[in-house]
């Protein structure tokens, strides 16, 4: 594993806390002929003592050459990870026995605590090089004591760890093994790493923007403590290790601390469940309770870094909340396709459907799009014909009223009232649009086989017409738009208003034989 690694060249990081690359000679100078790359190996670094750093720092070296070595030609170089800001410490006279340890602890200056590198050099020959991204207060970084120290083993991040408290307490609050065999790393896994098979690697945590809370069941039908769950979508591949959920950023649950790596592919929806029975698939434990009422929140974080947050108000039993593909928060539509267990509706672990839009007051759906209702004014509405006493059908089935609209409007919200004060309002979610100049038929019964053969019915007539002594009004929000009154009506004959405002009996037959022109312009009165 010999690779060029100059002192000003940054080497690739192999873990969150440790970097390394191999060495090969760049040049040979007088006094260095007896020292080859790999003869001296860096085996322990204590850069962040508990207390004043400069007082307790040390670097431990191991003689891997198989013979005694003179040290006076060697130089320890401390720098940033990219090689900049380098400072040198020249060894004094001394000798280290074969397979012996040597500890440098005076005159090192102040070793960096993070994003740093150390190199052993003889002239321009790089004997060994290691880099580290972070340190732990009071704990030395140790090369695994279960290995024979060499310049190959100290390149691998899996072979380094922080000294445990069972190591020697070099000084109060400081643990390491300077000048002695190191601790075994199997006992103290390196922080920020996980095992992928038998290989330890750096944890790849998600970052803000790569994780979204997309669905949650706060009030399941059944035992909340067993059946609650939260779904989290990973938009980029990452590890679940270290991820935490909670009701707020200051009250997070336990992080996922599995020793094994928990990789999640991009596009995966991870289900956190209160128990394995919470959802058809549960990937990780949900260790806090979701609230059922009042304003509530759920947050997801990695360590202390907030990744996403959702807010919701109350809950419906057995119905999950979701964030749909458009980013809208709503309760899942409780339809059979969304029933994942008896009386519980949601799509845990699956793509979320679009939310059913909630209409605000004064709105209607134009197709799938909400828009304001276009209500008519009094000047745009005229009652033009009515059948109060049908012959070809009973009164309940055969009555109808025709209204002409002189502008393109919506029928939503229009109401009818009669002399007795009875009232009925046309309430629909979809926009009931009519064009300008339309003759719109309101009927008691829309079925042509039962209503005397009315050619076409546009909307329901919610009041009953008296055969005589009646006043009929169309209104909106309590405002009368138009009104007609009549003293009597002929059986089977509609009453009409022609284009000049004259009132008379209809003469043209429709449907089963009654007289009138429902939905069509009226003939002139005599």
Question: What features would you describe in this structure?
Answer:
By secondary structure, this protein is mainly β. The protein has 3 domains: 19-202, no CATH class; 211-345, Immunoglobulin-like, CATH 2.60.40; 378-505, Sandwich (Immunoglobulin-like). Helices cover 2% and strands 36% of the residues. It is built from 3 helices and 43 strands. Strand 24 (295-302) and strand 25 form a beta hairpin. The longest helix is centred in the first third of the chain and has 4 residues, at 53-56. The chain starts with 18 loop residues before the first strand and ends in a 21-residue tail after the last strand.
Q: Which descriptors apply to this entry?
A:
526 residues, mainly beta, Immunoglobulin-like, six-stranded mixed beta sheet, 3 helices, 2% helix, disordered N terminus
Set out the fold topology.
Elements: E1 19-20, E2 40-46, H1 53-56, E3 58-63, E4 69-70, E5 74-80, E6 87-90, E7 95-96, E8 101-104, E9 116-122, E10 125-132, E11 141-143, E12 160-162, E13 168-171, E14 174-176, E15 193-196, E16 199-202, E17 211-217, H2 224-227, E18 229-234, E19 238-239, E20 243-246, E21 263-264, E22 268-273, E23 284-285, E24 295-302, E25 305-313, E26 321-323, E27 329-331, E28 339-341, E29 344-345, E30 363-366, E31 369-372, E32 381-387, H3 395-398, E33 400-405, E34 409-410, E35 414-418, E36 423-425, E37 433-434, E38 438-443, E39 459-460, E40 470-476, E41 479-486, E42 495-497, E43 503-505
Parallel strand pairs: 22-23, 38-39
Antiparallel strand pairs: 1-10, 2-3, 2-11, 3-8, 4-7, 5-6, 5-9, 9-10, 11-12, 13-14, 15-16, 17-18, 17-26, 18-22, 19-21, 20-24, 24-25, 26-27, 28-29, 30-31, 32-33, 32-42, 33-38, 34-37, 35-36, 35-40, 40-41, 42-43
């Amino acid at each position: 594993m010999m690779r060029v690694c100059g002192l000003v060249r940054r080497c690739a990081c192999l873990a969150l806390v440790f970097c390394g690359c191999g060495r090969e000679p760049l040049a040979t100078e007088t006094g260095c002929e007896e020292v080859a790359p790999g003869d001296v190996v860096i085996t322990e670094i204590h850069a962040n003592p508990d207390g004043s750093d400069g007082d307790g720092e040390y670097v431990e070296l191991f003689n891997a050459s198989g013979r005694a070595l003179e040290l006076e030609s060697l130089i320890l170089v401390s720098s940033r990870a990219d090689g900049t800001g380098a400072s040198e410490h020249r060894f004094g006279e001394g000798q280290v026995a074969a397979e012996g340890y040597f500890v440098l602890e005076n005159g090192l200056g102040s070793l960096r605590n993070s994003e740093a590198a150390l190199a052993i050099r003889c002239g321009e020959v790089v004997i060994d090089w290691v880099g580290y991204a972070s340190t732990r207060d009071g704990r030395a970084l140790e090369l695994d004591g279960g290995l024979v120290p060499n310049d190959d083993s100290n390149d691998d991040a899996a072979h380094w760890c922080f000294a445990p408290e069972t190591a020697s307490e070099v000084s109060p609050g400081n643990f390491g093994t300077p000048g002695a065999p190191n601790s075994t790393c199997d006992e103290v896994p390196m922080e920020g790493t996980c095992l992928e098979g038998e290989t330890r690697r750096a944890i790849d945590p998600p970052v803000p923007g790569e994780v979204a809370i997309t669905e949650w069941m706060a009030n399941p039908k059944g035992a909340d403590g067993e059946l609650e769950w939260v779904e989290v979508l990973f938009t980029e591949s990452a590890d679940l290790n270290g991820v935490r959920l909670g009701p707020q950023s200051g009250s997070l649950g336990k992080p996922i601390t599995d020793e094994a790596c928990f990789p999640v592919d991009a596009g995966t929806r991870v289900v956190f469940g209160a128990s394995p029975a919470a959802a058809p698939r549960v990937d990780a434990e949900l260790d806090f309770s979701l609230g059922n009422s009042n304003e509530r929140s759920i947050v997801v974080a990695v360590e202390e870094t907030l990744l996403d947050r959702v807010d919701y108000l109350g809950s419906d039993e057995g119905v999950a909340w979701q964030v749909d593909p458009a980013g809208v928060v709503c309760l899942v539509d409780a339809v059979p396709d969304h029933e994942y267990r008896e009386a519980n509706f949601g799509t845990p672990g699956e793509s979320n459907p679009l939310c059913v839009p909630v209409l605000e007051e004064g709105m209607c759906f134009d197709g799938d799009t909400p828009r304001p209702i276009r209500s008519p004014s009094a000047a745009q509405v005229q009652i033009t014909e009515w059948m109060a006493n049908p012959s070809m059908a009973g009164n309940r089935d055969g009555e109808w009223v025709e209204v002409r609209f002189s502008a393109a409007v919506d029928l939503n919200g229009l109401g009818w009232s009669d002399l007795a004060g009875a009232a009925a309002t046309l309430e629909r979610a979809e926009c009931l649009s009519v064009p300008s100049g339309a003759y719109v038929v309101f009927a008691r019964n829309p079925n042509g086989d039962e209503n005397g053969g009315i050619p076409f019915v546009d909307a329901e007539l919610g009041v009953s017409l008296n055969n005589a002594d009646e006043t009929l009004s169309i209104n909106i929000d309590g405002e009368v738009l138009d009104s007609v009154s009549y003293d009597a009506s002929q059986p089977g004959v509609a009453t009409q208003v022609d284009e000049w405002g004259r009132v008379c009996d209809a003469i043209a037959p429709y449907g089963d034989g009654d007289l009138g022109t429902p939905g069509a312009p009226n003939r002139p009165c005599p």
